[in-house]
Amino acid sequence: MHVVTGGSGFIGRVLVQKLLARGEKVKVIDLAPPPFTHPSLSFVKKSVLDDLFPELRGCAVLHHFAALLGVENSDNHPLQTLEVNLIGSRNVFRTAVEQGVKKVVFSSSSEVYGEPRELPIKEETAKGPVSTYGVSKLAAEMYALAYARELKTEFHIVRFFNVYGPGQQPQFVIPLFIRNALDGKPLRVYGEGKQTRCFTYVDDAIDGVLTVLEKGKPGEAYNIGNDRQTTILELAELVIKASGRDIKPELIPFGRETRLEQREINYRQPDISKMKSLGWKPKIFVEEGVQKTLGWMKTYP
Fold this sequence. Notes:
Helix 4 links the parallel strand 5 and strand 6. This protein is α/β, with parallel strands linked by helices. The two termini are 35 Å apart. It contains nine helices and 13 strands. It folds into two domains: 2-163 and 201-224, 3-Layer(aba) Sandwich (Rossmann fold); 173-195 and 229-269 and 283-299, Alpha-Beta Complex (UDP-galactose 4-epimerase, domain 1). Helix content is 38%, strand content 17%. A seven-stranded parallel β-sheet has the order 3-2-1-4-5-6-11, with helices on both faces. The chain has a two-stranded parallel ribbon with strand order 7-10. It has a two-stranded parallel sheet with strand order 8-13. The longest helix is centred in the first third of the chain and has 21 residues, at 78-98.
């Protein structure tokens, strides 16, 4: 049986769907139920801070995807972020080891790197998170690696780079841009919009997780991301074109009332050589992914 913490969330539920499609039995641990049902799917309403010992009985593979998300959200709620993302992760890992879970996949983030020291970013690149979210993820990684080195459970760490797709929360950049475009509102771009990101479609991201689960080396981290860079201004223009609306991006200067420039990550591009060596590479690039996401948002406004 596979257990997925945070299995009702944006990324977690895609993982659950793919596991069910493979014929696996899946249990979701979350504060809200998944938005679908299946004969092989069960749900337990619990926090990662709760006693999870009964829920992990009989679990072969644990996917720890539950977290308090978002850089801005985590900086506004630092204590809650550290409690859920760090203390909660420690609770999940410890319980998994005590219950004899064979494999654990931990969902980490490119936020652990901060402003990169090199491009593309390798897994061993020096870490320097600048957000509470990034700090909490890096510290949780340290717990995972400590358990991996001292105990028998296999731990795998996956670091996602700017995952997007249908069903993502509206405060993230791609659904935010799409919603504004569909509503005929300007797309706000900070600075000159030259910041680069490598946007990763959610189906590609989960295919990467399953590849690491099957072929990855225990105790190691893997970058899961699209390695093609897109500037934020290019993204805004792409969304506007896809929407068919007669609007333009609005350039917003950095500042205390908008966004602090010193907190902005200017460049983020993963080195995905390790993932390619396992036979994985992204299939959906941002042009197609935006169209898919836009179509979903039109259908489910």
